[in-house]
Every structure is written in C-alpha cells, then in structure tokens.
UniProtKB/TrEMBL annotation:
Key word Coiled coil present: yes
Residue segments, region Disordered: 122-149
Biased composition regions of type Basic and acidic residues, renumbered to the chain: 123-135
Protein name: Flagellar FliJ protein
Length: 149
C-alpha cells in the first residue's frame, strides 16, 4: 500500500469536517422539527382555549373567569411568540449549517478531483516507463537477431 500523501491527509480531514457538518445539520433539522411540533401544540391550545372562551361567553361567564381565560390566552400568545423566535433562530443556524456542508462538500470534491488527476498522471508515467522498457527490450532482441553469429 502506498504511503499517505498530503493530498490524502487533506481529503481525510475534509471528509471528517463534511461528516461533522452533516451530523450538525441533522441535529439542527431534528431540533427544528421538534420546535415546530411544540409551536403546533401551542397553536392548538390557543385555538381550543379561544373556542372555550367564546363558548363560555355565549353562555355567560363571570368577570374573573373571563379575565382568567384572557390571561391564559395571553400567556399562550407569549409562548407562541417565543417559540416563533426559537424557530427563526434555528432556521438561521440551519441555513449556516447547509452552507457549511456545501462548502465542505465542494472542497472535498476539489481535493478528490486533484487526487484523481494525480493518480492518472502517475499511471501515465508508469505506462510510459513500462513502454520504454518494453521498447528497449524489443530493440535489444531485434539487434541480437540481426547481428551475425
């Protein structure tokens, strides 16, 4: 097995960075889904309590119960607002994570292209060397067969 070249080291390091960027992206995506699920739950609670408030007010409600409903809905609104902020922050991090992953992928592809070229050049040189050696052997055999004994 041939020794590891500096280009191989770069490829390995970049692959590690790409893998790490992929793991981070997956983790952020999971957090985004979870945050969206929490937001959906909060929206559902708000919708339910708004409907309960409406139903209760149609049947008659005391001022204190009405105030409690409104206060709870305001608390839900604040939680929804905070959850939207969290989702927006995760979205920013997700976009940065995607960019990092694409940058690392592009870098890895560049290094792999260079490695492929390097391997092709080495193969070409080796084929040329083998061809020269074969030509020398053939020429030597030809000269020996042409010389009188």
């Amino acid at each position: 097995m041939s020794p590891e070249t500096p280009l191989d080291v770069l490829i390995n390091l970049t692959q590690d960075k790409l893998d790490e960027a992929g793991r981070n992206l997956a983790e952020l995506s999971t957090r985004r889904r979870e945050a969206q699920g929490q937001l959906n739950t909060l929206d559902g609670y708000r919708s339910d309590y708004t409907q309960r408030l409406q139903d209760t007010t149609e049947q008659g409600v005391s001022a204190s119960n009405y105030h409690n409903f409104r206060q709870f809905i305001a608390t839900l609104d604040e939680a929804i607002s905070q959850q939207n902020t969290i989702i927006a922050q995760i979205d920013v991090r997700l976009e940065a994570g995607r960019k990092q992953w694409h940058d690392e992928k592009r870098r890895l592809n560049s290094y792999e292209t260079l490695k492929t070229r390097q391997v092709r050049q080495l193969q070409y040189r080796e084929q040329r060397r083998e061809q020269r050696a074969s030509d020398e052997i053939s020429a030597g055999l030809y000269r020996r067969t042409r010389q009188p004994h």
